[in-house]
Predict the 3D structure of the following.
Amino acid sequence: MNFFETIILAIVQGISELFPISSVAHAVIVPYLLGWNLNPSFLKHNFLEFVVMMHIGTTIALLIYFRKDWAKIFHSIFNAEDSKKILLLLVLGTIPALLFGALFEKSITNAFSSVILAASFLCVNGVLLFLGERARKKGTKKLEDLSWWQAIIVGVFQSLALIPGFSRSGSSITAGFWMGLSNEESARFSMLLSTPVIAGAAMLEIPKLIHNHPAGLLGLSLTGGVVAGLFAFLSVYFLMHWFNRKEINTMGPFAIYCILMGGFIVVSKVLF
């Protein structure tokens, strides 16, 4: 990869990681759309590590934006507060992604080289967002009102993001709607839940990148992380205001985009 390609992917990563449109799918689709001839060996052995490095920037952006929430959560470890329950819900919601990631790591890595697979699941993600939109206006719960098993269910849906094409935020926000969370609270839980998962994946892959990276990839990855973090912060700022507007169809535009983009890629691959 060159510097220009790194910047483009980092911008896409920073936006699509938090928007419900699957950052993993776009990391696969964008090089295909722009005609980049990336080395197949790089895609199979190093691309996941490169993408995960950009997740560090996303994690830092989330920590900065939700710094007050995280301060309350960590403070609750030593004090009896409502935030202690939120900490428990986050732990329970994170477990499914850790289990599925450990069990299916090899299959997930291989899926990064399949454009048509990512595009197909992007269409499915769009359908999931439409289904979530139907349940959006019924939710009234605050995050503290979730039960432990509801947090696990949201975590299971978040795990769908391990499959290229499914969105972490889209899946978990939709599950939050189904569990009765309000519009804003579902988005808040999704963003908080993303932080430990993204950070955990980064911690696993960074040592591999440091020890096994091709020449120059580490520097490009660090650059990508900074750019992705900047755009991730702008994205989460936009999304939290977007989901606070109850009068609009919050998931519909993203659902339409996923179906149209995924369908276009599938058709182009089949015909050309």
In short: The CA atoms of residues 66 and 192 lie 8 Å apart. The radius of gyration is 18 Å.
